[in-house]
Task: structure prediction
Amino acid sequence: MRIGVLTSGGDCPGLNAVIRSVVHRAVVDHGDEVIGFHDGWKGLLECDYRKLDLEAVGGILARGGTILGSSRVQPAHLVGGVERARGHVADLGLDAIIPIGGEGTLKAANLLSEAGLPIVGVPKTIDNDIASTDVTFGFDTAVTVATEALDRLKTTAESHQRVLVVEVMGRHTGWIALHSGMAAGAHAVVVPERPFDIDELTTRVGERFEAGKRFAIVVVAEGAKPREGSMDFKTAGTDIYGHERFTGIANQLSVELERRLGKEARPVILGHVQRGGTPTAYDRVLATRFGWHAVEAAHRGEFGMLTALRGTEITMVPLARAVESLKTVPADRYAEAECVI
Ligand code: F6P
Result:
């Protein structure tokens, strides 16, 4: 079999573990040939690739980022993109393509699959918002990084009697905010799923100071927004791909809390540090299992499918279903967090 693998969209700790696993399972166990496309779909569209053998994937398990590079280029964004991809798959004699990516990548994968290309997807994102899998690799690492940062921020917040508004990633969903906030014992967690009321948030933080506490930590997901009419709020437009830009919610919120509470407040934006560096053991294991199962699905001819974690088992789910909706933080999970924060 000849398999093409690519990593597309925002990078994520664990991508290299999937690539390594695909190569080990395919090349060593099945005698396949594996090629890796550079910079996501762009590599497939421009026929830019390299052969991946055991040597190429040596020592990459613990490495963050992706040895193949990534980009946000999508076949559907380019005129004739799908046809070009189909042509290159035929020219290269590929029997399977394994794209590793998040929401946008999987939508593109589904489009190519519906156009007849042999696709087996692997979900990745630190945001943990892919509906058909219980967990995506990268999430555990991001939560670990954010939790460590929150633990550190508590000491400086206390020294200065400040409110620190800490912005974590999560464009559409608040999984990182929820988990890191719970793990670090934050004093408020604000997620995109529940537009916040600035009066309620101010009261919550204010009560802490009234009770004699010297500081407060508010964790806010980058996609969080105030309830309509609750406070002045500036959106930041879209980027060159039409994605909504970060609004700088931590900045806006810290200014407002400082004004209302009469306490020093500072924004802290963790940003891409959550995506960089070595994956946790959990993420390495999940990524490795996904790679193994993607190769097996390709050998069974199970295309148009996505690897997914259900409980402790890896299963295959239809790509078309996987891209229907995002996995948002449900009210009961938020309630569990609220009772301890
Ligand atoms: O990987 C997902 C994510 O981290 C989102 O939380 C965030 O909005 C986005 O990627 C930002 O990625 P980039 O700056 O690479 O476009």
